[in-house]
Amino acid sequence: MLDAVAAIAAEAGRLALGRASGEYKRWEKAPGHPVCDVDLAVDAFLRERLAKLIPDAGWLSEETVDEPSRLGKRQVWIVDPIDGTRDFLRGRSGWCVSVALVEDGSPIVGVLDAPARSEVWAAQKGEGATRNGVAISASQRAALSGARMPIDALPKVDRDLVAVAKPNSIALRICMVAAGEADLVATYKWGHQWDLAAAALIASEAGAAVSDAVGRPLAFNTPGAAVFGVLACVPAIQVAALERFGERARAAL
Sign of the C-alpha dihedral, residues 28, 32, 36, 42? Predict the structure, then answer.
């Protein structure tokens, strides 16, 4: 199943990359939330191809009107056709096609295809995670101070951390933790399950700790498909990270 999903995600990635430098229509679904017709084309392609793998599976995607019938399905595809649309629109590389197969509320297959970066991230539950076919693992950092965080700029209160380059895609930022290229990703605002499903599996299979912003386990295929932030980090700093960022998250709630 993982190989089949990866092959479909790769085709979708090529479709998106092939139109990245051409003409396309763009608009805002809501203020600050850009979308383009390439998102919709990739979404339609993925739905058609993934439905052939598991005809009875439900469907949840950023670019498809939600169908409540998915809640009665044991297996559901959770898809973001282009995660990191801002980078796609700007001609940058920090975007990917995100595909996850969720079973009983938990991801069992996850693939991120990032063709502009020549990267394919993949995981199957219980079998570890890879980038371009090579096994990856989270770092062994033991202290929060000095932890690398993909972010544009650190606030003063977090100057003991180390900022590293940040792709627009939250999924790719989480996978930086999975590959030992970052130690911590923390957000504390409401988001969506399609942003996290594939990346959360890849990170956890690589040995990272993954939760929502206040430390609760992530659950998928829920009504509303919302998640309150994400904390992905190396396990040894999870308690310290929750003490710092969880407090801000609870205040935001």
Answer: negative
| Residue 35 confidence (pLDDT) above 90 | no
Percent of the chain past pLDDT 90, that is, above it, reads 90
Spatial distance between the Cα atoms of 39 and 234, rounded to a whole number of angstroms? 32
Sign (positive or negative) of CA dihedral 219, 224, 5, 102: positive
Query: Between the CA of residue 91 and those of 47, 87, 88, 245, what are the distances in Å?
Result: 25, 6, 5, 32
- CB of 237 within 8 A of CB of 147? yes
Q: Which residues neighbour 48 within 8 Å (Cβ) at sequence distance 6 or greater?
A: none
For residue range 110-135, what is the model confidence (pLDDT) as tens digits? 999 999 999 999 999 999 999 999 99
Kindly list the structural domains of the chain, giving each domain's residue range(s) and its CATH number in brackets, ordered by start. 2-135 (3.30.540.10), 148-252 (3.40.190.80)
